[in-house]
TrEMBL record:
Organism: Candidatus Gottesmanbacteria bacterium CG1_02_37_22
Superkingdom, natural source: Bacteria
Pfam families named in the record: DNA_alkylation (PF08713)
Protein's name according to its UniProt entry: DNA alkylation repair protein
Annotated signal peptide: none
Length: 227
């Protein structure tokens, strides 16, 4: 399938009602077709990995085409320049999270970009830093505890950002680290208690929400099974 054929296929599944529903959840309705993620994943499976096609889909600027691009891109073909171009084009939290979870967290630049983007001012670029931490913690079971412990200082440093899509991603990253194993759970709780002392509405919310889950019975049961 070429790019034009795929766009036609996406438009077949478009839904104005779905776009209105997505908008209610804070998703940018601009250039959005309203195609469900399961449909995109099924299409991605049919297409397979394709670097050139991924770039073409991204260049259309269509919301779902960009998510699909992140699903079919070849991890080893991604360059820093491409990551910077794509992150600069994020205009919605779902495109940000899909790109980070489908692609960015599997590239060789993941650690570098986590550190760099956590210092950026743009809301979705900064969110991408913490979305990558969250997805990296969820996906890479071989990663060492030390890799995540170093991210906790970044989480603490950015816990005062009051912007909705940043603070939610900071909280998400903290919780995902704390659910990996007993050691990281203790470290995440420790940093949450430090964040709790920061005089910031955002920091207090991040801390209380994270502690509620990390100290909860469901997480305790999960971690005990991993012993």
């Amino acid at each position: 399938m070429d790019c034009d054929h795929i766009i036609k296929e996406l438009k077949k599944h478009s839904s104005k009602e779905s776009v209105r529903g997505m908008e209610r959840f804070g998703i940018n309705p601009s250039r959005t077709l309203g195609v469900a993620i399961p449909i995109l994943r099924k299409l991605a499976k049919q297409i397979g990995r394709n670097h050139d096609l991924s770039l073409q889909l991204w260049s259309t600027g269509i919301h779902e085409a960009r998510i699909l691009a992140s699903m079919i891109e070849e991890y080893d073909m991604v360059t820093e320049r491409q990551m910077e171009e794509w992150v600069g084009g994020f205009d919605s939290w779902d495109v940000c999270d899909q790109c980070c979870g489908n692609l960015f967290d599997k590239t060789k630049f993941v650690h570098k970009k986590i550190h760099e983007w956590s210092k950026r001012k743009e809301e979705y670029v900064k969110r991408a830093s913490f979305a990558m931490i969250a997805w990296f913690a969820f996906h890479d079971r071989r990663a060492k505890d030390t890799e995540f412990i170093q991210f906790l200082s970044i989480i603490k440093a950015c816990s005062t950002d009051e912007r909705k899509y940043v603070k939610k991603a900071v909280n998400w990253a903290l919780r995902q680290i704390g659910k990996r194993n007993i050691i990281l759970n203790k470290e995440a709780i420790r940093i949450s208690l430090e964040i709790q002392k920061i005089p910031s509405t955002s920091a207090r919310w991040i801390s209380s929400d994270a502690l509620r889950e990390l100290r909860g019975e469901a997480v305790k049961r999960k971690l005990n099974k991993l012993r």
